[in-house]
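User: I'm preparing a small set of examples for a lab meeting where we compare how different chains pack in three dimensions. I only have the primary sequence for this one, and I'd like the structure in token form so I can line it up with the others. Please keep the answer compact; I'll paste it straight into my notes.
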Amino acid sequence: MSTFSQFFPAAGGGLTPKFQDFTSSGTFTPSQALIDAGGYIEVFIVGGGGRTTSSSTPASGGEAQLIPMYLTSTSNVTVTVGAGATSTTGGTSQFLGGAAGGSNISSSGGKQEAAQTLKASPSWGNRNGDTAAGNGFFGYGAGGTGISGEGGIGSAKANSGQAGGYYANGGSGFVRVTWYE
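Assistant: Understood. Below is the structure token output for the 181-residue chain.
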């Protein structure tokens, strides 16, 4: 059975929430204070958005996920932020938490595809106005538009994982690590 403090470690414990944003690839180094506080982190990770190059096949946004995990050491963790697509497929974002006793996770990049496959977030593109584009996860990883003027993202924001609209590049990915100490 889980306890409230396992899901909300700062509740009643006086711990301070902290976070580190990655808008480009880098390294996350868990502090000893984080490990001493139980090692709980949450990783919000978004792959790079795809690019639409066809009026009939829009691009999807990058996969967006929020993953909880526990770290057990202060070893460096490699973080990769996926590039936004300049052709059709966005780059994969990764958090290699296994180096610090956690889990290795990745979010795939969006791509030009007729139907969304194997993604944990609603990031499909608007196909000829037949269906609205997926809104992603709080707007991160939202789908693109096939033809300018249809629903969906036309011009992706940097570090949003949003798909680019018709002949517009996808937005780069994003990673945020949140912890308590």
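A couple of notes for your slides: The chain has two helices and ten strands. The beta strands are 17-22, 26-28, 40-46, 51-52, 64-70, 77-80, 93-96, 104-107, 164-166, 174-180.

User: Perfect, thanks.
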